[in-house]
Recover the amino acids of this structure.
């Protein structure tokens, strides 16, 4: 008789566009053998990724919470959902999703609690950079972490930082984010396409970034670096792709520096894979918070050389295929970009090819799926052992 598939419920903070949400969708998209069944519970109302997950035939439920809030009524509803579904594994994603998953299971009788997996997709360069409510959640998770069957991190730096503030170090797995190299690939037509969308002159070299507007992303640094590059005599144009950039501090900084004609904003869009290959250089300017930035690996898959700040596992991700600079120092970002410009298009193309090889060899979707299968097996085994 064929064994029933392992039942996994994913509890996520939100299904808005973000690295963790994209990785959840990517994981669910890659499942083929029917060995697992999945459903998703979001704390807040559906975001853009929810419909993409539902298109895979995966049920998505939400608890209707406001961002950053967890109510007892919502936890009771989560408890009912978990009780009725009787999953083998409950997989929490992001801080609030992890904490809610723990609380929902805690409200069940001990014998009916599934194995828990927490997925941490954030780095903690300095916990004081986080909002007060986030700091409280993280410290609660640290206190509870010994009781969790398995914690996964998407970067080694993130693991070290969380363990330094008290996260239990013994039942952990490192599962680096995966990049879909079939979707993100070189596209000779992308430069003209991007130039048309953002009205960029053909002769300008495009410095791109893909990320929502948030202080930790430090997009102001991109505006400052772009202004410095123009002062150095480089004909460059910055493109910020993502949510919340219109009217942002970065846009205001570009205006103050007199470079509004050299900074373009493109809102979040589903065909980002048709935009990224049009960048000449990808610039990750983040000051903190990154663990394993998906946008960098996607640019690498598209053969775009990258300049990244030394946050999370960025340095390990790009290796010798790009440039690494200290965070919060736009002048050094500008100098690193200038170095790639001065090396010329052939050298940049060579770095781009090496970058694609690097992510293809080390961060494939198949590897990501296999490591999650192993993680769920390890978590359920740990649960059984704790009950014996």
């Amino acid at each position: 008789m064929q064994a029933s598939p392992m039942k996994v419920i994913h509890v996520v903070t939100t299904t808005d566009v973000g690295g963790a949400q994209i990785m959840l969708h990517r994981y669910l998209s890659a499942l083929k053998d029917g060995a697992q069944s999945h459903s998703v519970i979001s704390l807040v109302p559906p975001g853009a990724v929810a419909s993409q997950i539902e298109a895979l035939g995966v049920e998505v439920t939400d608890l209707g919470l406001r961002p950053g809030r967890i109510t007892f009524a919502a936890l009771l509803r989560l408890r009912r959902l978990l009780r009725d579904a009787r999953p083998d594994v409950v997989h929490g994603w992001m801080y609030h999703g992890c904490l809610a998953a723990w609380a929902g299971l805690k409200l069940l009788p001990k014998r009916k609690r599934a194995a828990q997996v927490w997925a941490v997709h954030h780095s903690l360069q300095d916990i004081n950079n986080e909002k007060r409510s986030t700091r409280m959640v993280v410290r609660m998770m640290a206190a509870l972490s010994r009781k969790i069957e398995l914690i996964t991190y998407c970067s080694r730096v993130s693991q070290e930082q969380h363990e330094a503030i008290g996260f239990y170090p013994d039942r952990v797995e490192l599962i680096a984010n995966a990049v879909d190299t079939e979707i993100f690939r070189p596209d000779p037509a992308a430069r003209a396409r991007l130039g048309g969308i953002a009205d960029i002159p053909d002769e300008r070299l495009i410095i791109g970034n893909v990320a929502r507007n948030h202080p930790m992303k430090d997009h102001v640094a991109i505006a400052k670096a772009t202004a410095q590059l123009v002062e150095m005599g480089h004909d460059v144009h910055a493109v910020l792709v993502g949510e919340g950039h219109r009217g942002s501090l970065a846009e205001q900084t570009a205006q103050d520096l007199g470079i509004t004609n050299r900074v373009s904003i493109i809102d979040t869009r589903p065909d980002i894979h048709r935009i990224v290959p049009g960048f000449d250089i990808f610039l990750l300017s983040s000051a903190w918070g990154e663990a394993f930035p998906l946008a960098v690996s996607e640019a690498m898959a598209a053969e775009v050389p990258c300049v990244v700040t030394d946050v999370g596992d960025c340095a390990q991700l790009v290796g010798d295929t790009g440039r690494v600079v200290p965070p919060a120092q736009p002048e050094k970002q500008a100098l690193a970009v200038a170095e790639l410009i001065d090396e010329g298009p052939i050298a940049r193309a060579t770095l781009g090819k090496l970058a694609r090889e690097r992510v293809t060899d080390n961060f494939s979707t198949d590897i990501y799926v296999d490591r999650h299968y192993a993680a769920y097996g390890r978590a359920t085994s740990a649960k059984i052992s704790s009950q014996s």
About this structure: The mean pLDDT is 95.
